[in-house]
Structures are given as C-alpha cells and as structure tokens.
Design a protein that fits this description.
single chain; eight-stranded mixed β-sheet; 28% helix; binds guanosine-5'-diphosphate; 29% strand; alpha/beta; binds magnesium ion; globular
C-alpha cells in the first residue's frame, strides 16, 4: 500500500478543518479545543494540534490529510507535518486581506524546509469583500505572469466537488513532478 501525505495549510478560519472533513472517508480525528487565547475572539474553536483524515485513492493508494494547527506560531508539529508531506495546499480566505501577510509567512516557512508541489486554494470567494485572485497572488508575493508560480484554484471547502477539483489539480502537479517517492506501508 502506498501512502501520499497532503498537508492542508492556511490562515485561521480559511477552511482547513472543513477541507479535511469534506474529503475524508474516515471520521476525522480533530483536535479542536476551545481556544484560550486571542483566537477565541475570532471563532469559538480553533485547531490546537491538527486535523487528520484519510481517503482511498485507488486499490493500492491512500491519501492522508493533515490540517495544520490554526495558531500563528510555528512549532515542532509544523515541522513534523511538513517534513513528511508529499504536497500541500495553502488555503487563503479571499475576503481577509489582513491575513495575507500571515499566509505569506506560511509559504516562506514551508519553502525554507521542503521543496514539494503546492497549490493555492482561495476560499470564501462567495463572501462579501472577496478580492480577485490576481490581487491576492500579488499580495502573496507572486508575479502573476510567472510560469513557475503555483496554480491557484477557487475552492469552497464545504463543497465536495470543489474540494475534489482542487485535489485533481494538486495530484496532476505531483504526478507531473519528477521524483515523487511515496511511502510504503505493509
Ligand atoms: N461561505 C464560505 N464559508 C467557508 C468557506 N470556507 C470555509 N468556510 C467556513 O469558515 C469557517 C471556518 O472554517 P474552518 O474549516 O474551521 O477553518 P480553519 O480554521 O482553517 O480550520 C467554517 O464555518 C467554514 O464552514 C467558503 O469558501 N465559503
Ligand atoms: Mg481548524
């Protein structure tokens, strides 16, 4: 059995837990706890450790999903997740420009550690105040005409079809990549 590990990263409230829940075929192991810090002002629960889910991709292939911790700090858990990931999606809420800087920090944090396929998923595109994807990309530090920049998809994490479409884009990138070594589990 081969295992592919997908990390779902992003800012608080971007839709990481929802993404994992929507895609997973097993009951998601989530570690949401009532937040005790400033994030509790933002929403009643925030992910203190990680969300874990799983999806069967084929007779010999499992996809393991890991939603990253919600808080701004990067700790050992982040390192562990990202060092073992085969690819990741960065979720950014399109209607929260104040969070773009943090999203940018997440990209830097990850790319300083690993070079793995990634796509950007713009969520909350259906919400008032959502910015256009071009504007968001520029805010994330990309040249929109750069052929090497990551693919960008609009995504609603509550909608399984939308999440599957994003997954297809990411898998195409992984398969197109030169040297993907998946883990073997007995
Ligand atoms: N309308 C809308 N709501 C969304 C979207 N993505 C996430 N949400 C909602 O935003 C809230 C926060 O999502 P959650 O998965 O907990 O975010 P996390 O902090 O990244 O894990 C939930 O109520 C989601 O249903 C989206 O694209 N559109
Ligand atoms: Mg969460």
């Amino acid at each position: 059995m081969k295992t592919m590990r997908l990390v779902v990263a992003g800012t608080v409230g971007a839709g990481k837990s929802t993404f994992v829940r929507t895609l997973s075929e097993i009951e998601v192991v989530d570690t949401d706890r009532t937040a005790t810090d400033e994030t509790s002002l933002f929403k009643p629960e925030t992910t203190v450790a990680l969300d874990y889910g799983r999806l069967v991709l084929g007779p010999n292939m499992d996809l393991h999903l890991y939603g990253t911790p919600g808080q701004a700090r990067f700790d050992f858990m982040w390192d562990l997740l990202i060092q073992n990931a085969h690819c990741y999606i960065l979720l950014v809420a399109a209607n929260r420009p104040n969070d773009f800087n943090h999203a940018r920090e997440i990209i830097s944090f990850i790319s300083e550690r690993v070079q793995i396929p990634m796509i950007i998923g713009l969520t909350h595109m259906d919400c008032p105040g959502a910015l256009m994807s071009e504007e968001i990309l520029i805010n994330l530090g990309y040249d929109i005409h750069d052929k090497n920049r990551p693919p960008v998809v609009d995504i609603n994490p509550n909608d399984r079809t939308s999440v599957l479409e994003a997954l297809v884009v990411l898998m195409a990138l992984v398969i197109g990549g030169s040297d993907v070594r998946l883990s073997h589990t007995p």
